[in-house]
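Let's practice the habit of predicting before peeking. Look at the sequence and jot down your guess about where helices and strands might fall. Then scroll down.
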Amino acid sequence: MSLQRLRLYQLVSPALPVGAFSYAEGLEVLVQSGRLGDATALRTWLEAELARGALCIEAAALPGLMRLLAQDDWAAVTDLDHWLLAQREAPELRAQQRQMGWSLQQLLADLGWPLPAAATRLAWPAAFAHAGHSLELPAEAVVEAYLHGWVANQVSAAVRLVPLGPTEAQKLLLALGPLLSARAQQLALTDPHSLWSGGIGAGLAQLGQGELYSRLFRS
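Done guessing? Here is the structure:
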């Protein structure tokens, strides 16, 4: 169990070289438009995404992806990977998913877990599932790590954009802990095809990122 925990920590570490720090997923649009300007608004936004955003569909797909990877069913993995990518409306966000996924795949190959020659490049959720499978992690822990990693990256972006103080950011992460744990348990047992994304505001914000006059983040 201790080794699994250490591997899980490595997977969610900000030192993981996948470039997550360069993305805000529409948060920059919301801040510049004045719709998100403090910790309370950020918390409301994050809770809404954890309740009904596209993030939930991706997280729910991770256990199934891990099972398919264990069965070496790469055709099914690829189909599910493409379906998840199609849930994202903004081209910048699809580019983010592809870039982070491919970076993680390259890292896994360097660490001794290369993909088979017949496998295609995976986007971020499927690559994350591949990492969880390779590191022999429990599926629910992988789902929880996926949710936590997304929230932590959003809060990190908010520290630079809102701006949000680092202590206030840590208080927010701590406050969201029970919700993250509960959603991970629920989503680990949920068929992703039974879910739908209600994150219309997130989709519009992500689509608006490319139209900003100046920006810090790529999505």
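How did you do? The mean pLDDT is 93.
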